[in-house]
Specification:
transmembrane; about 0% strand; about 95% helix; elongated
Length: about 120
Amino acid sequence: MRRITILLLLLLLLLLLLLLLLLLLLLLLLLLLLLLLLQLLLLLLLLLLLLLLLLLLLLLLLLLLLLLLLLLLLLLLRLLLLLLLLLLLLLLLLLLLLLLLLLLLLLLLLLLLLLLCH
């Protein structure tokens, strides 16, 4: 039971990390909007886009590591609870991917908007 509690705490910590990464992405997006409003250089916009893509990759990597960890624990302990956690995590992964795709679409639209304005 103690082992399960520790695992759940670890999972919570990793989920908090993911939320932090998402907040960073949103912050980057806000910065991008600000740049658009101020009509700054296109190069800065592209740099931010690259940064955002890097963050997306990091986020996906973190999620995959989390999934691997849970699968390993599932194999070791063969618990139903871990199976449920894994399914929950998969759902979270799908939601995050959807959100990231939306963010990318928004960024591309902003970039297009900036190109059309100049």
